[in-house]
Amino acid sequence: MGQTLVTVSVDESKIYVGLKTIISIWVEVKKGYHVQANKVNDELLVPTTLEVNDVKGIIISQKEFPPGEQFKLDGTDTFLSVYDGKFLIKLFLSPVAEMKAGNYVLDAKLRYQACDSRSCLFPRVIDFSIPVEVQTKR
Amino acid sequence: MKSILRFVVALLFSAPLTGLFAQTEQPMIGQSAPSFKLTGLDGKTYSLEQFRGKYVVIHFAATWCPFCNAEAPNLEQLYKTYKEKDVRVFIVDVKEGEGLVTKSSQKFSFTFPILLDEDGTVSAKYAPEGVQPDLARDEVPLASNLIIDKEGKIRFYSLLNTATFDAKLTKVKQRLDELLMTP
């Protein structure tokens, strides 16, 4: 049950042993909806988060979310920090020196909580894969 | 031919209007409020039936819901204003654990009962038939407010999808005042 409000896509990526590479994860929110940003201004809200499972030999050094946009709740002084439309999460990966060349897949989960201007939906999780090609030489 | 044309034109104009009225109408008015028995954060069991003879205001909420949190201080204020007038106020928290709900309750210093609908069964019972069919039934009533009268009938239902968000609860108070003045 439920509409598809959020979709995730990952750019095909080559990552190089010993180097830090950015993987682009694109998230698209259905028109008319927004999701809470990664940094929320109320601890009770559910921020958008990315969880990536470890693959031996690939170091996940950083996850970079865009800044949120301000959204005012009608009839209140409450402002929310949100994402709408299409936004980019940058994932920084670096394979260790001993890593063998080849194709690898990292399993990931995007958690979000969506609202439109009149209603809010339960938090949801999207499971997706991040395929990477490890190369030993650039 | 002219009369057929008139009928078609009338149909064209009336269809969107009918849709508009259907959208702004409050659902389930005059119907018996679905019964429930839930445990409160205070450990006590609450059933709707035990409040027959009183007006009951119910707010369906979740701790992560921005609409609910914006309304929360005003709900506490409403409770304090009306508690001497045979009005009871409850929050039915939907599908969350006690720990999280306690944290939220402490943040807003609620002094009325918070009931835990941990599996969403009660919330689903209050989802009006045919409204937001794309959503899970227990998701539909989130952030809405109801007034249930002394006989257990629904007298006010501001389902957010059909009403403008009213954080200050102006319309709930207005309706409560009307009902309390009715002999």
What does this structure look like?
- The complex is a heterodimer of chains A (138) and B (183).
- Chain A is mainly β and 138 residues long.
- In chain A, 0% of the residues lie in helices and 55% in strands.
- Chain A has no helices and twelve strands.
- Chain A has strands at 6-10, 13-16, 21-29, 34-36, 49-52, 58-64, 69-72, 79-83, 86-95, 102-112, 114-115, 124-135.
- Chain A has a four-stranded antiparallel β-sheet with strand order 1-3-9-6, with no helix packed on it.
- In chain A, a hairpin with a 6-residue loop joins strand 7 (69-72) and strand 8.
- Chain A is elongated.
- Chain A starts with 5 loop residues before the first strand and ends with a strand.
- With 183 residues, chain B is α/β, with parallel strands linked by helices.
- Chain B is 37% helix and 19% strand.
- Chain B has helices at residues 2-24, 66-82, 98-108, 121-125, 170-181; strands at 37-40, 45-47, 55-61, 87-94, 114-117, 145-148, 154-158.
- A seven-stranded mixed β-sheet of chain B has the order 2-1-5-4-3-6-7.
- The longest helix of chain B has 23 residues, at 2-24.
- Chain B is globular and about 40 Å long.
- Mean pLDDT of chain B is 88; it is low at 7-23.
- The interface between A and B is medium-sized, with 21 and 26 residues.
